[in-house]
Amino acid sequence: ITRVKINELKPLKPRFEVPDVLVREPPTEPLSLLSQDENGVVLSLGAESQRVIVSARPFRLDIMEGRDVLMSLNSRGLLAFEHLRMRKDTHCPLTCILLFLYLLTSLFVQQTTKDEDDKDEDGMWEETFKSHTDGKPNGPSAISLDFSLPGVEHVYGIPEHAETLRLKTTDNGDPYRLYNLDVFQYELFNPMALYGAVPVMLAHNSQRTTGIFWLNAAETWVDISSNTAGKTVFGKMLDYVQGSSETPQTDVRWISESGIIDVFIMLGPTPKDVFSQYASLTGTQSFPPLSSLAYHQCRWNYNDQEDVKLVDAGFDEHDIPYDFIWLDIEHTDGKRYFTWDPHKFATPKEMLQGIMDKKRKMVAIVDPHIKVDSNYKIHNEIRSRGFYIKNKDGGDYEGWCWPGSAGYPDFTCADMRSWWASMFAYDQYGGSMENLYTWNDMNEPSVFNGPEVTMHKDAMHGAWEHRDVHNLYGFYVQMATAEGLIQRSGGVERPFVLTRAFFAGSQRYGAVWTGDNAAEWDHLKISIPMCLSLGLVGISFCGADVGGFFKSPSSELLVRWYQTGAYQPFFRAHAHLDTPRREPWLFGPENTALIREAVRQRYTLLPYWYLQFYQAHCTGQPVMRPLWVEYPQDPATFAIDDEFLIGTDLLVHPVTEEGARGVTAYLPGKNEVWFDVNTFQKHNGAQNLYIPVTMSSIPVFQRGGSIIPRKLRVRRSSTCMEHDPYTLFVALNPQRTAEGELYIDDGHTFNYEKKEFIHRKLFFANNILSSINLAPDAKFSTQSWIERVIILGASKPSKVTLQTADGQESQLEFEFDSSMSVLTLRKPGMNAGEDWKVMLQ
After folding, report:
1. Backbone dihedral region of 696: left (phi > 0), alpha (psi from -120 to 50 degrees) or beta?
2. CB under 8 Å to 25, separation ≥6 — which residues?
3. Is there a cis peptide before residue 93, judged by omega within 30 degrees of 0?
4. Which ranges carry the Glycosyl hydrolase family 31 C-terminal domain (predicted)?
5. What fold characterizes domain 725-840?
């Protein structure tokens, strides 16, 4: 990783540098000087053949490996740094810019910028937006830098946008905007800002993956141009034949309204290297409670306790599992968060206990706008402690939101966050219990009567203007809330917090969803690239409202959305207040059966989902990932965003077209095979496969060479399945080997950090299937056992022998389906946490 930091040498006042996002100050390494002249230096980077060339006039930085330029900074001369100034200052002094370059290192290059124009222009000191005015006491303070990526045609990331996975060039329109906003009915295939912002871009070609992390929390714009954009395949061939083909190159320009230039360049070279490099900076996905990976039922709003009881009973009556039921803003006493409506939710503990008796949980919304009401404890405390954001004149900033007039707590203040966390204690949050978790909405922040439905940029967070910190607000709200849920249990229980607004590092605090989508087929389709883009920048726990938030889905769309959502990380149905009810059993028995089957598939796969999240937590690899991450040298995968992988071993191509009779899925991997998980049919990799579909089809394939654990006894919630047995699905590759893992812990505490878990490698080779302990120093026991092993691509054995840890051997019953080459071992019965071997003779 190379870090480049550019700041004013002697600014009028300090410029904002983003705190709290990096998990630690990255360690630095000294660079060795290879050569220098009057205009620059050549330095060696850590890796042997990598070096940095820094030129002074004009400033330019090139990162080389051997003879190849990996990335150039300011090669187009778009570095801009507007210095802070006093109004009516006739003599702006020459400003020095100080440049820190880290390869995880520090070297100084000084460069003077020519005197910026003294004449006042419109908007320099004040801007108007409709009826709003934004005062800028120190004038414009924008920064900009360009990056050139030779050999690159595919760039990804910079969520959140309702956009394809592969980012488009912006030459003929607006740049991609990163500015957290409460957007009403957002448009698709549009660079407009949405609810969250992660200023991280990945670039990929068949040789290398690199990343750029632009650490700035102000409004940011990203311009992308490419010398091959718009060229047809024929045009590129013609170039090649005529020998005139230039090397493809993508150029990216980042522009932020304030702050400093602080950018991390991650050099890969593999996708997995970039993920771990970024995780070393901002941390990994928090490890969620197992139950939060199951199904969530939500709407705005369940009317009262009786309604909650009826919906809960409806799931049991129709034999559909669920783990969480959600309450939106109407559950509160007049939109006062941390309270309950005294008529509709008069006895919340009784309600929570009723849910707990069925081993289920609840989420209630807690938004960060606080009703201005002198009879409201939360408001009085925040006001008396001075914790509200201030307006530019020093009074408490007030805006309009769900409760009417509202104050906005300053979550950038650590004392405010600590106080907020303390409000989740059981003795503070009346009616709360250990099975109540939290949803932070509207935390962009949303201000109904503010510019673009958000806060004025000249509002004050202590010494800093809102313009400096805007994209951090939601990150801090979720951080403080997650901390509150941890503290209320004495640090024992893992939290679950869903947020709408987010920034780099938000993965450490919980889950994210794609906001207020609509019940339309295109919104179902776009949920896939939106979640893939989030996963590429560290946020693995993401999903979209199943069924669409606005409008009403047809029964076909609803079924297809359940089938898609069941294979996305965060699986929640949600709907707007004004839509007709859409619990899964309201669309006739046929559709109820289809939805039940999709939800049940999710529950059978929970052991695999949980393992993926454990690995994401340990390594920073995404859970839901684009095909190119696993097949980085196959250009056919680079732009695919209608199918995806879960981990390395499951490929999913949901049906997202209305009236579809078939889908075409690309199965990657030249010498690989894939097994249809429903029929066990084997297909070769590196082909486009046409799959006929009916309303019950969810095209899912297991990679040959993998072992996936499932629990096939689906009960009413994931917690009810804790001690149930496993079935192992062993899919052999052409070399007749397979491997996988099994991870088990208590599912909800931090005890895994004290080595209380089971982590086993499952391995099949030479006709022996074995379970090997990957964590010999860990201690945990499980009641779960292996009740079945299904081997795909097998040949028929004459006998099957089980050898347990104590050396005892026993014969196992088996069945062989010669038409499909499937071997089933019934009731081998070994404990899931112990060593064992199954030998096929």
Report:
1. alpha
2. none
3. no
4. 620-708
5. Immunoglobulin-like (2.60.40)
CB atoms within 10 A of CB 782: 18
Give me the CATH topology for the region 2-82+138-282.
Immunoglobulin-like (2.60.40)
Helices (H), 102-232: none
Phi, psi angles (nearest 5°) of residue 536: -65, -25
821: left (phi over 0), alpha (psi -120 to 50) or beta: left
DSSP type of residue 449: T
Enumerate the domain spans of the chain.
2-82+138-282, 296-366+415-444+470-609+618-624, 725-840
Specify whether 441 is catalytic: yes
Q: Which residues of the chain have pLDDT under 70?
A: 89-119, 230-245
pLDDT at 91: 42
Q: In the structure encoding, which two tokens stand for residue 162, read together? A: 């309702």
Two structure tokens written together for 686? 């590196």
- Residue 237 confidence (pLDDT): 57
Give the three-state DSSP class for 634: coil
SS (H, E, C) 10-68: CCCCCCCCCCCCCCCCCCCCCCEEEEEECCEEEEECCCCCEEEEEECCCCEEEEEECCE
How confident is the model over 95-111, as pLDDT tens digits? 344 455 544 333 333 44
Query: How far apart, in Å, are the Cα atoms of 728 and each of 700, 710, 757?
Result: 17, 6, 19
Q: Which CATH architecture has domain 296-366+415-444+470-609+618-624?
A: Alpha-Beta Barrel (3.20)
Q: 90: buried, middle or exposed (CB in 10 Å: 19+, 13-18, 0-12)?
A: exposed
Catalytic residue among 251, 458, 468, 516: 516
Task: Examine the residue annotation and report whether 458 is marked as an active-site residue of this protein.
Answer: no
Look at the block and give the residue holding tokens 């005062």.
Answer: 135
Active-site hit among 441, 458, 468, 634 = 441
Cα torsion 676, 682, 684, 689: sign: negative
